[in-house]
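@channel sequence for tomorrow's demo:
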Amino acid sequence: MEENIEKLKKIFNKIKNMELSESLRSGTTGLGYTFETLIGKREDNKADPDFLGIEIKTKLGYTKSPLTLFTLVPLKENKSSIKFILNNFGYPDKNKKLRSFRGNVFCNFNNIIANKYIFKLCINKKNQKLELIIYNLYMQKINNEIYWDLSEIKKRLFTKLNYLALIKGYPYIRNNKKFYKYTYLSIYKVKNFETFLKLIEEDKIFIVFNIGMHKSADRFGQICDRGTAFRIKQEYLEELFDKIE
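structure tokens (generated this afternoon):
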């Protein structure tokens, strides 16, 4: 792995020494997509790391927003968990014809969703599950059928994030075009799964749902799951990872 880290560092330093790199995509994904294109990686949704066993994450240098670790769809016996959540706990979107479900879910913090429900996480080590517990506003339990297998979470963590490269860059506008300057690279190695679970229990790692419905004519009304993401607050990154470089 040391050799692979050195390869990434050399490539990064070449990109860093470039004056500016023109953005190859508009919007919030431009920073990451442009960098991955510069290192020769094609965009995909695979669970494997991005570069020779190293997962690459990019952040704008001035942002403190949480970092997405990985995505993993929850389970529900004999049914689609995403469809179940959207149909039972979603709410009308702006045009009132379609439904959405968006929200952050923690172990301890009571985040109210759709002004009706409180979603909370519970680690059940006996059953080896991370359970999603749904309450009404009176803290009466409504549902606890949705969960993630701890074994699958562990597998995704160590498959995707055993080694992590965090790269930061800054945007610039020149002649009405967006460019990036990549300035910072840091390499991390994940500690252990027990620490990951502990950070969930401490609300330092949480889950973000972003479910909607397609609005285009050919797919109108079909469910659009933009990824059920495990995220970590940036200030706790070195509680989950050991910094190598």
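heads up for whoever presents: The longest strand covers residues 177-190.
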